[in-house]
Amino acid sequence: MMTAVRHPPPTPPPEPVAEPVVVISQNYVAPYMIDLNVKRKMLSSLMESTISVNDINGDQWFEVIRGQMWKIHERRLLLDVADNPLLTFQHKLLTTRRRWVAYRGDSIDPKDVLFTVRQSSLIQVTASSRTKLAVFMAGNMEDGVCDFYVKASDSETSCDIFIGETKTMIAQMHRSQSFFSGYLGKDNFTMSIRPNVDYAFIVSLVVILEEINAERKFQELVMKSVMLK
Fold it and tell me: Which family does it belong to (predicted)?
């Protein structure tokens, strides 16, 4: 007679955050957990790529585009399923820390700034270390307390996103392959977003983290190649 297998009880769904987190639109806030799959696809050259964001059924929800037309100004565009621009990310050059500014729609007008993302430590600019990003909403001065922060693991295979400088986690990201597979167009990762959190906003933060890590890795490779000469 076979002994019945006793399975552990199911993990209860995460509690919604106390106050809804809405940055891009209330349309992207759900009362339940959201799981998304993210895939980067390289196009005709290593300077061009798109990022596709799908649900667990494979249906596309968002797309992030970048290409040679954006190269000079280091911009990325977040599109919804109907190809409407939700957000434009612009890399601010000539700053002591890596810094990105997010604008509403396809604008780069200062009045349309939604939030700014920057590294929280100068050491991270050149050293390979755990990346921590501070996120400031448009009405918050960058020398104050951040509104959100992103903390990546040492291996850069995962990251956690928190409200302000609290321990209230609102989302997680896990990479399914190594960082360098991204250059081959095989970079895949998953995101889990808590109920009542703007998942389009979380997508934008993870994309910015990816861009910052990619830039740092490229600079490290260049430095190593120079040292070997």
Answer: Belongs to the LOR family.
Tokens representing residue 144 in the block: 């104050």
Number of H helices, E strands in the chain: 1, 12
Tally Cβ neighbours within 10 Å of residue 180: 11
Contacts of residue 36, Cβ cutoff 8 Å, sequence gap at least 6: 53, 54, 55, 61, 190, 191, 193, 199, 203
Amino acid at site 135: V
Q: What is the DSSP letter of 228?
A: H
Domains and CATH numbers, the chain: 26-62+120-228 (2.40.160)
Q: Are 133 and 149 in contact (CB under 8 A)?
A: yes
Question: Coil, strand or helix: which one is 182?
Answer: helix
Which residue(s) pair with 104 in the sheet? 87
148-152 and 132-137 strand pairing: antiparallel
pLDDT tens digits along 110-169: 999 999 998 876 444 444 456 789 999 998 876 678 999 999 887 667 899 999 988 899
Strand boundaries in the chain, DSSP class E: 34-42, 49-54, 60-66, 75-80, 85-92, 99-104, 113-119, 132-137, 148-152, 158-163, 169-175, 188-193
Is pTM beyond 0.85? Reply is no
Q: Six-digit token pair at 223?
A: 């430095």
Cα separation, 176 vs 166, whole angstroms? 27
